[in-house]
């Protein structure tokens, strides 16, 4: 009698183990679905933020390019004005300097600047 109960109990135990093995695949599939849904929930806002940051970065790069160009033009202007002041200084302190020559040089430089 004990043998019969042992066999039936063993069969029930095997059936339970078989059910767990069969259910395990279902559990894995459900877990994978849940992980996928969670990942998508997290990834979508990140994608939107990355797109937003890329647009901001592009805008910043364009501003930087414009600022670099403006700085380059300003440096060129400063160099030209510095050269003009150096010419005027040399004219003023030349041993044979005349007011007429200085005025003429200043007028010519002003005319060049106005163009």
Judging from the principal axes of the Cα atoms, what is the shape?
A: rod-shaped
Percent in helix? over 70%
Query: Into which percentage range does the β-strand content fall?
Result: under 5%
Number of helices: 2
Query: What structural class do the secondary elements suggest?
Result: mainly alpha
**Element order: H for helix, E for strand:** HH
What is the CA–CA distance across the termini?
A: 119 Å
Sheet of most strands? none
Please indicate the count of domains.
1
Unreliable residue runs: 4-8
**What's the rounded overall pLDDT mean?**
82
Radius of gyration, CA atoms, in whole angstroms: 43 Å
The overall strand count is 0
What do these coordinates show?
The chain has 2 helices and no strands. It is mostly helical. Helices cover about 95% and strands about 0% of the residues. It has one domain (about 20-115).
